[in-house]
Amino acid sequence: IMEVENIISDYKKTLFDSLSDPYAYFEDQETSIRILLEVGAKEDPAWFFLRSQFNWICNLINEDKDFKEKD
Fold first, then answer.
1. Residues 6 or more apart from 52 whose CB is under 8 A from it?
2. Which of 38, 43, 49, 55 has a 20 to 30 Å separation from 71 between CA atoms?
């Protein structure tokens, strides 16, 4: 039973990691969210995805702003 729980835990981590990838296909991210909801993830995968996207966009804006300030 512990081995199965470890496999599921590793799979959840992999799915959450995939939600952090801003270049992943939306359909894949949607599938990851659905699976995580079905297996009872402790953290809401939809909010995790949205926070990841928000942080990625903010970083892009800051990088662009920093680049323009150097000119």
1. 19, 20, 22
2. 55
